[in-house]
Structures are given as C-alpha cells and as structure tokens.
Amino acid sequence: MSVKVTSDLWWKNAVVYCLDVEMFYDNDGDGCGDLLGLTERVDYLAGLGVSVLWLMPFYPSPNRDDGYDITDFYAVDPALGTLGDFTELVRTCRDRGIRVIADFVMNHTSIEHPWFQAARSSPDSPYRDFYVWVDERPPEKPGDLVFPDAETSNWTFDRKAGQYYQHRFYKHQPDLNLANPAVRDELAQVMGFWLQQGLAGFRVDAVPFLIEGALDDPHQILRDLRAYVNRRAGDAVLLGEVNLPAEQVREFLGDEDGDELHMVLDFIGNQAFYLALARGSAAPLADALRSYPQVPPSASLGRFVRNHDELTLDKLSEEERAEVFARFGPDESLQLYGRGLRRRLPTMFDGDERALRMAYSLAFSLPGTPVLFYGEEIGMAENLEIEGRYAVRAPMQWAADGGFTLPGVSSRRPMVSGAFGPERVNVTDQRRDAGSLLNWFERLIRRRRECPELGFGALTVLDVGAESVFAHRVDWDDATIVAVHELSGKPVTVELPVEDGEALVDLFGDRSCSLPATLQLEPYGAHWFRVARSGVRLPP
C-alpha cells in the first residue's frame, strides 16, 4: 500500500468537523459562542480525532441569515472575537494537527455591505456593476425560488437605485456579479487574505449559483480560483456545495488532473441514503453509487449523514420524497420548503443507537472524506422551537446543565429539551462511559484515519442476495476493505462474494473469518473487514 501520496492529497484521508462558532462554546458568558471558547475546546476535537475544522461564517454580519449575509469579508464579527482570537485558534489547531477551513460566501453579500450601499447610491458608482441590475423584472418560474416560504421573486426593486437587483436567496442578500472581472479579483484577494491568516482552504457556498450565467464558460471562474489558491498555498483545498445531478456535479471537479474544486459534498448519495433507510432496502443507495461518474484521482467526495441546513431531498422524485417524509418526518412541522427535513438523525430513529451507529459506520466506510456536523458524535437532536433550518443549529451540549455558557445565562438560541436535552445527552457523561456514542465515534474516526484505502480506493458495490444489506468493497493497490451494513433492523444471513483472499479480518471486533464467508448479521449490524492475502502484511 503506497502511503507517500496521502500526505500531499491530505483532504482525501481527512475527517472534517463542521461547526457554528456562535453555537459551540461561550467563553465570556454573553450567551453567544466565540472564538476563544472554541479555542478552549480544540483539545476536545483533537481527542475525537478530527483532522479538519470547518468554520461556518464568522465575519461581520447583521445575522439575518445566520452569518451568510456578510458586511465585511476581511474581518471577524465582534460578537465572536477579534482577528487576534482567530489567529490564536488557527495556531492552536495547527499545534494539535488540525487544519482549519472556512465558509466562503462568494455569490452574495448583505444588503448592508458597503459595496451594495455604494452601488445603489449612483449608476456611476464603481460598485454598481458589482451586482446584477435590470430595469424590468424578468419572467420567473416558481421552481426558481430557493426559499419559497420567504420570497416570491428573485428580483427586488431598489427605490434609491431605481432598478431591480437579483438575489437567488433572500432579498437582503444581493447577488454579486461574477461576470465582472473586478468582482472576481476582489474575491480572489479575500481568499488570499484568509490563506495568509492560516486557513487551509474554503468551503465554497452555493457553487452552481455562483457561476450561473456569469461567463460563456462559467467553469472558468472555478479554474481561475483553483489556480489562484494553488499559487498562494499549494496544499489548500476548495470544498464545494454542489447539489446537482451526479453527471453535472462531476463537471465541477474539472479535468482528469482536477483543475476546479478539490472536493464536492455528495448530496446525491446522501439523499439516496435516506431513501434506502426509509425503505430498509440497499437498492437506492447501491444504484446511486454505481451510477456516479468516476472522479479525478486527486479529488474527493464529502460523505455526510447530516449537514447544517435542511436535510434536502430535492433530487428524489415526489413519490420517493413522500416515502422519506412518511418514515422520518410525517408531520409538516418537521418538513421545510416541501423538499427537506429539519431534523437530526437521533430523533428520526427514535434514539435507537444501533441504527445511528450503523448509519455513520456506512458513511465512513464509503470512498471519500467523512464530514461531521457538531453534536453528531454525542447524538444531539434538533430543537424545533428554533425557526426553520436553524433548528439543527442549537447550542452544543457539554454537560448535564448545558455547559454551553455560564450558569444562569441564556444562550442566544434555546438548547434542546426533553428526551434529547443536555441532562440526557452531553459530552461529560459520555466521556465517562466506555460504551457511549462519543467513545464509539472516537474509535470509528481513529479506524477511518488508519484506512487510507477508504480515501483513495475504488468502490465496488457487492450483491449479497439480501435486500436490506448494503455491502461494498474498496480496493487500493494491494489492499481491500469490505464493509457490510444491515438497513432494516432485522437479522439476516448473507454470503459475501469475495474470493480474492484467504480471510476477512474484522477491523472492530472478533468477526474474522475465512473465505468464502457466510455472515449472520444482527439488526442494524455494521462490520468492516480487511481482506487478508498470502504474502501481504496487514496494518495493525
């Protein structure tokens, strides 16, 4: 097994942890998480084993869209700390072997950003062409709206400017005009600034909207950004949010050498995963993974169970989406925009940890880069008292009394309550319990990082003759990992079609067996094996 390449292409064997600074840990007792508080918790992340910290927006913002409406790309929101605090966070993470990436919102600004205020003030302003303006509102289709619960159009008339401006998201987030070279240069400079502050890359927000209609060859924008980032920091990474059909997603990774995004989040696999869980059938996930185009050798897919927005199911058919809603969110209050769920996984499975562990084991065993959202490692739930998609962004539960802020201080958002509240689900108690979900996650992450073939290898979905079992193998050089997961919660016996070895060595327990192998799987059973071959020494 070749290991030299793994250090250069570090993102292919990383484990990413995404968090909202405001909701992670409050150091100064004002009810809002901050950078100093996060720095205090870096050792927690290091102990968990994550290698990349992904920060949601921490820039100055009116916070009408949880920080994604930015007023200054070059600063830190004073409520979260200072640029010095940010530098200390990055330094501490680097000391613990953790890289830091951050959300980069390139497709729009806040309506309060000085660029927009200057743009609307005069048609002669040099910033007028930083945004997209028209005299007459263009025709639109209902499906064009990203947030149909809040907006009725992608165009809003600005009285001061005397024109309509485009906003694919909220009206307080005017779209930047990426067709303007000055805008592209400004955004590249922003990236250069944060790379100089120590970032290891960016998660690029809403990439399809970013390049839509900007140039005759819109992907040139991504090629230019990739080239710029590579010049400034050769090992920096661009992780893109691209929720499109698989064939189109592949285009955002560029040519065979990879000249656009380094990584994309796998929304197609994620949606098929939930359909498979809803049916208790491996077929939807198997079909989606088999049909996914091959990605460039240097690229990776971000595999996730839960993200920080609504759990979107928009690429499923209406009938398929109805199946997932019926299984995991039948009440309309649990749904959002008619296309997604505002729940976390523990409540979808009614707290069944067997199902939780199986789901994360499966996600971590697929070729690609695992991505966790804060609190998943302890089984945090959503708080439906919080509006819309922010329901999954409740304060982190550190102790039985919450532990997020000082005693007696109210957090900016209410904590989860009830069966999944901090008195029942928290870091402190789970640290002391060897069998807890938290300690299981530490073992899972450690084992995943010890299996570079899962980051670099090729996937083959296996047919084991049981509808409820998803089985696959990943091959890289002379190493092979085989993983088996039962999705329906019912026991089953399967025959593994693996014939090119002598035995299967269990990576988490004592299920090692000779080949050919017959496995008896318990409900929601999850197993990883390495294939032992004559003359090939296995890692420990």
Automatic annotation (TrEMBL):
MF GO annotations: transferase activity
Gene3D superfamilies registered for this protein in UniProt: Glycosidases, Golgi alpha-mannosidase II, Oligo-1,6-glucosidase, Domain 2
GO biological process: carbohydrate metabolic process
Keywords: Transferase
Boundaries of every Glycosyl hydrolase family 13 catalytic domain copy: 18-412
Residues making up the signal peptide according to the UniProt record: none
Pfam families for this protein: Alpha-amylase (PF00128), SupH-like_C (PF22157)
PANTHER family: ALPHA-AMYLASE FAMILY MEMBER, MALTOSE ALPHA-D-GLUCOSYLTRANSFERASE
The name this protein goes by in its record: Maltose alpha-D-glucosyltransferase/alpha-amylase
High-level lineage: Bacteria, Bacillati, Actinomycetota, Thermoleophilia, Solirubrobacterales
